Amino acid sequence: MNHVLSVFIGGFFGSASRYVLQMVFNRLLPSGSIPFSILLINLVGSFGLGIAYPQKEAWDSSVQVFLTIGFLGAFTTFSTFSMETLELIRKYRYLDSLIYITVSILGCIGAFLCGYLIYV
To answer: What pTM was estimated for this model as a whole?
Structure first.
């Protein structure tokens, strides 16, 4: 039951943080052809998970579940990524959607790896 509560609390803070950061990024970044706010959030979240993942054995299991599944799981937004991608395709912006997909996937894998390599 502690893990469920950890996921719940982490998810609350992760989703609230994502919402606030998305509003901030939307004000600071140009509204161009690619939804940069979601892209940056996914990159930051992937980097954070890369940092947290190697440490999972050192933490209490409730802390690990709070941070990785709860907070970062709610913070990163691949469901929103999917929606934004389909919206680009629906608007016939095929090149923009291809760029967005490529940078999101490769960028998030790269960000995770950079975070992971900090401890390895």
So the answer is: 0.78
Work out the number of other CB atoms within 10 angstroms of the CB of residue 106.
Answer: 10
Rounded CA separation 108/45 (Å)? 8
H helix or E strand, kind and range, residue 41: helix 36-52
Three-state SS annotation for 53-73: HHHCCCCCHHHHHHHHHHHHH
Distance (Å, whole) CA 1 – CA 12:
17
Give the pair of three-digit tokens for residue 6: 């950890």
Tell whether the model's pLDDT for residue 9 goes beyond 80. Answer: yes
Nearest to 26 by CA among 84, 108, 94: 84
Chain segment 89-114, per-residue pLDDT in tens: 999 999 999 999 999 999 999 999 99
Rounded CA-CA distance 38/104 in Å is 9
- Which tens digit of pLDDT belongs to each residue from 23-36? 999 999 877 778 88
CB 31 within 8 A of CB 89: no
